[in-house]
Amino acid sequence: MAPPIVSIIIPVFENLLGLKKSIDSIQQQDFKDYEVWILDGGSSLDTQNYLSNLEKPFYYQSRVDRGIYDAMNKGIALAKGEWLYFLGSGDIFNTSTVLMSIFSNKKNIKNEIIAGKVRYEGIKNPFILNVTQKVKNVYWSPLIWVRNGLHHQGTFYKKTLFKNTFYNLNYKILADYHLNLNLYKNNAMCKIVDIIVANCNSDGISKSGTWELYKEEINFKTALSNPLLKPFFYLIAKIKYNLRKRTING
Predict the structure, then answer these.
(1) How large is the average pLDDT for residues 194-204?
(2) What does the DSSP 8-state code read for residue 2?
């Protein structure tokens, strides 16, 4: 049997209702050439019972992990698909035609990354300068050194990109941003598509605006460029941090 075109990786911990919502969204897809790996961090018995009753192409592994990026790394190692896609537990595809729209276009799959938009749902506003915007537009340009241009629930990665790299567990909040910036620096080929891929929760820790988040950003941007640029990255982070605080506090 040929490997699936896309492997969908879902990290989860104690969110059974959200997981069921995500799986239902996958099952509604018109495109069926996929496998799903659910990486459970050791949830309660109800979740274990649910997972044990799933049938192919849904698979799971349940064990204590070191957080969401560790779970995603485990999913990468298990995945057999040509493309990898990471869906948060509780997040869903925007429509039933998303995967078909992405993978029926041969021009898309000639690239190493395919990135679309996401629509945010939740209480927190994910945007610093626009309190009404709900859809994250994406870009693959030098602006990624200022702000992450991709969203991992809107992005499909060629599995070959992970041959020699995984999510860096030194970055507990922004390892996805670090990965994207590293791929951009190494000239990965990215196709931007005008599709809303997923509806996502905006209440996660990466949208909290804590200074810990911006410290991670300063550190990996400096590590991927030049130590002399650290004051510049600190300035950018401080501006973003203050704007985020103003947005959160209304």
Answers:
(1) 84
(2) P
Global pTM?
0.92
> For the residues 102-123, what does the mean pLDDT come to?
90
- Lowest average pLDDT, out of 93-107, 126-140, 172-186, 211-225, goes to 126-140
Domain annotation covers residue 113: yes
**pLDDT for 249:** 54
CB atoms within 10 A of CB 94: 19
Domain housing 97:
6-206
Q: What CATH code is carried by the domain that includes residue 168? A: 3.90.550.10
How wide is the angle at C-alpha 187 spanned by C-alphas 186 and 193, nearest 5°?
A: 130
Q: Rounded to 5, what percent of the chain is helix, strand, coil?
A: 40, 20, 40
Contact between 67 and 170 under an 8 Å Cβ cutoff? The reply is no
CA dihedral 151, 201, 244, 238 (to 10 degrees): -40
AA letter at 246: R
Q: Between residues 27 and 208, which one has the greater pLDDT?
A: 27
In a domain, 225, yes or no: no
Query: What pLDDT was estimated at residue 208?
Result: 56
246 contact partners, CB below 8 Å, separation of at least 6: none
Does residue 182 lie in a domain region? yes
Domains held by the chain: number: 1
Helix residue ranges, H only, the chain: 16-27, 45-52, 68-78, 98-103, 175-185, 211-223, 230-248
In a domain, 34, yes or no: yes
Q: Are strands 190-201 and 113-121 parallel, antiparallel or unpaired?
A: parallel
Rounded mean pLDDT of the chain? 91
